[in-house]
Amino acid sequence: MMSRTNHRSALFLASIILALAAGCKGDHQRSNDSVLKQSIDSLVVAEHKAGRFSGAVLVADSGGVIYQKAYGLADRSTGRKVEITTPFYLASVSKQFTAAGVMLLFQDGLLQFDDLLIEHIDELPATVYDGITIRHLLGHTSGIPDYYTFANPQPGYNNSDVLNVLLNIDS
């Protein structure tokens, strides 16, 4: 479990990386990629060496991946190192990013908040999901149970596994 201090350090580190990335935008963006990579690397290495960060960092834009590297241990008891493909269980941390993505889809006219969920995910059984809207999901008022309460997720669970569980909820 990450301590409050390490959690704050990770959030601070993410904020600095975002600021660095934003500062390298513009017509000369690709020429700034090496400067950005060096800046991110020196910052993350310093945090890692100080014992305040273990994890993976990915910085990308519409042109592709700018920086990608893993640091530290995924499992201290076994000494297993973090790899770029190591899954991290972020739980509620990802909710605001998902909501921001949905807002962008709305802004682009690709969905409406009152659209039914089953209009966008054909595989969902209407007997269970009929009447649930995008707005319900954004407000956490859909009534869909937390899959942790009935799915017993295991290490290595991925998005396909979660979707499979949601497809098989009894009405």
Find the structural class using helix and strand composition.
Answer: alpha+beta
Low-confidence stretches: none
- Secondary structure: helix percent: 40-55%
Mean pLDDT: 79
Distance, first to last CA: 36 Å
Radius of gyration: 20 Å
Kindly estimate the percentage of residues that lie in beta strands according to DSSP. Answer: 5-15%
Tally of alpha and pi helices:
6
Q: In order across it, which strands form the biggest sheet?
A: 1-2
Q: Element order, helices and strands?
A: HHEEEEHHHH
Query: Looking at the structure, what is the overall shape?
Result: globular
Query: Mind summarizing the main beta sheet?
Result: 2 strands, antiparallel
Count of β-strands: 4
Account of the protein in words:
With 171 residues, this protein is an alpha+beta fold. The protein is 42% helix and 12% strand. A two-stranded antiparallel ribbon has the order 1-2. Helix 1 packs antiparallel against helix 2 (29-49). The longest helix has 21 residues, at 29-49. It starts with a helix and ends with a helix.
Features of the shown structure:
single chain; 171 residues; alpha+beta; 6 helices; 42% helix; globular
Summarize the SSE layout with pairings.
Elements: H1 4-23, H2 29-49, E1 55-61, E2 64-71, E3 73-75, E4 80-81, H3 95-107, H4 126-129, H5 134-138, H6 159-167
